Amino acid sequence: MGSSGMEYDIIVVGGGLGGLTAGALLAQSGKRVFLVEQQMNVGGCARIFSRKEYTFDAGLHELDGLDELDLKKEVFQKLGVFNSVEFIKLPEFYRFIHGKTDIVIPNGREKAMKVLLKRFPHESDGITKYFDVLKRIRKEIYDFPCERWKSYVVFPLMPFIFPNLFRYGKKTAGSFIDSIIKDDELKLILFANHSFYHDNPYELSLLFYAAVQDSYYSGSYYIKGGSQVLSNYLARIITENGGQVLLGHTVREIIVRHNEVRGIKYVDSENLTGRLEEIYAKVVVANAAIPNVINELTHRVKTSKLKKVRNRINKLKASPSMLSIYLCLKRPLKSIGNKHYITFVYDKDITKPCSIKNVDYAQRGYVFVDYSQIDSGLVANNRGVGVISIIDYLSNWEYLTDNEYTEKKKELAKIFINRLEGVLPGIKKEIEYYDVSTPQTIKHFTKNPCGSIYGYSQIPAQAGLKRMDINMPIKNLFFASAWSFPGGGFTGTIIGGSLCANKVLRALKE
Question: Is the CB of residue 397 less than 8 Å from the CB of residue 439?
Fold first, then answer.
C-alpha cells in the first residue's frame, strides 16, 4: 500500500483501458503516476477470467482497425505495444444469419463491398455511397484538430475543411442508410453489429458509427491471450517508469481545495469501512464513470458552477448493458462444423432494423463468438470456449430477489442455447458448463450506472464535439473513460486516454 500522505504528479482513479493508456503515456513522459484500481486485476472490461479449466475474455470480441487511419495505432506505436502484444487478424468481419439469409462479410473494405454488390446488385448506388461516406467521415475525423477545434481559425472553416462532419453531424446511422438503401434485408446486414455501438440504429450518431464501422471494414483483430494482455502491458509501463499500480483499493473521495484537486482518499476494497489513506498529486485523471465522479467522489464540493454541471450530467442518457452466456465446450466447434469466429443471429420475424429494447428475449438478436476458431490463447487441452452476448438493460434485473435472479439466468441461458442449437446443431451436447453475466454483474464489477458498457449513449446530442468538453469547475481534474470523448468501446477509450494525457501535459506546463 502507498504510504499515507505521499505525493505524485498524477493520480489515475481506475485501471480500465482509458486510465491505463493515459497513465502509461504520462509515465513514459517522465511523470510520477499513481494508479488505483478497485479490483485485483487491471483492465476493467478488458480482462480475462477463469471458470474451472476454462479462460474467457470479459469484453473483447474483435478489435477494429490498426490501419493508417487508426488513431489508436499511433498510440500503440508510441507505447511499443506491437513489440509485446500480438494481434491476430480474424478470418472475417462477421457472419450474419437471418431466416434464409446466411452471409459472411469478409475483412477488407473492397472485399466486403464486392460481396454486398454481388448479393444486392439493385442497390449498387447505395452500397457504393455507404462505403464512400463512411470512409470520408473517418478520414475527416482522423484529420480533425480535436485540441484546436474552437479556435478562431478552425471553427468558421469547418463546413469547408470538414464538409462531411458538418453535413452529417446531426444525422443518425439509421436515417442515413434509409436515405440511400431501400432493401430491408440489406439494411439488416449492414446493421448486424450495431450492438457494438448502441441498441437502436435510429438513435445512433452517424459520425460515431461511420468512424468505427469503417475501421472494422479495414480489418478486425483479436489480442492473443485475451484483452488482459494489453491491460497488463500498459500497467507495466507505469511501474517500469517509476509509477505505482495499487490493486484492490477503492477511491472514496477526490480531495478538492479551493476548486483545485489535491489528491484522493482511498480504502481497501475488502474493508470499505476501514481506515482511509490519502495520496496527493497535482492532477487527478478519473477513469471512473463521470456520473460517479460528479455525484460521489466530488460530493463535498458545493459550488454553484459544479451544481450546474451535476444537473446537466445527470440528464444525459447512458448506453445499454449486456447479458453474456459463457460456454465451456468439451472440444473446438470445428468438430461439429462451425467455420466462423463471430456470428450475428437475427430472428426471422425481425424484418427491419429497430430498437433492441422493444424486442423480447426470444426474438432479440445476439452474437456468438467462437474463440477456438483462432489461436486465441484462451483454449487449452483441445477444448473450446465461446460466448453468447445480447444487449440488455439493468431494469430487467435490479429488483429481482436472489432466487428470481438465479432462475432468470437459467431461463435465459436455456433460451439462447436452444436458439444457438438451431444455428449450430450439436452444440448443446458439447457444453460442459456455462456461466452467465448480467447487467447487474457489470454494474457490480464496474460501478457504471445502469451497468452501462459504452458510457454515455452515442446519440447525436451526446456524440462527437458535444461529448468533448465537460467544463469542470475543478482545476486539474480530467477524464479518460468510455464516458468521455470520444467514448464507447476499446478504441474509443484508448484514444480518449491518449487525448487526456495530452491535456494533462499541457496543463502541467501552464
Answer: yes
Does one domain contain both 306 and 346? no
Query: Residue 384 domain-assigned?
Result: yes
Spatial distance between the Cα atoms of 417 and 432, rounded to a whole number of angstroms: 13
The pTM of this model reads 0.95
The whole-number pLDDT of residue 381 equals: 83
> What is the structure's pLDDT at 82?
98
CA distance 483 to 312: 14
pLDDT of residue 510: 73
Residues of the chain with pLDDT under 70: 1-5, 146-157, 468-470
Name the domain count of the chain: 3
Region for 379 from its dihedrals, namely left if φ exceeds 0, alpha if ψ lies in -120 to 50, beta otherwise: beta
The pLDDT tens digits for 197-206 are 999 999 999 9
d(CA 268, CA 197): 34
SS3 (DSSP) at 263 = strand
- 93 backbone dihedrals φ, ψ, rounded to 5°: -70, -55
Residue numbers of the domain that contains 253: 6-67+73-83+227-316+456-509
Rounded distance between C-alpha atoms, residue 106 and residue 143, angstroms:
27
Q: Is residue 78 part of a domain?
A: yes
DSSP 8-state code for residue 276:
P
Angle between the N-to-C axes of helices 173-180 and 206-218, in degrees from 0 to 180, rounded to the nearest 10: 70
Closest CA to 343 of 438, 411, 222, 424: 424
Identify the H or E element spanning 475: none
| Residues counted in the chain | 510
The answer to whether 68 touches 236, Cβ cutoff 8 Å, is no
- Rounded to an integer, what distance in angstroms lies between the CA atom of residue 249 and that of residue 269? 5
Q: What's the CA gap between 494 and 481, in Å, rounded?
A: 8
Beta carbons within 10 angstroms of residue 21's beta carbon = 31
Cell triple for residue 57? Answer: 475474455
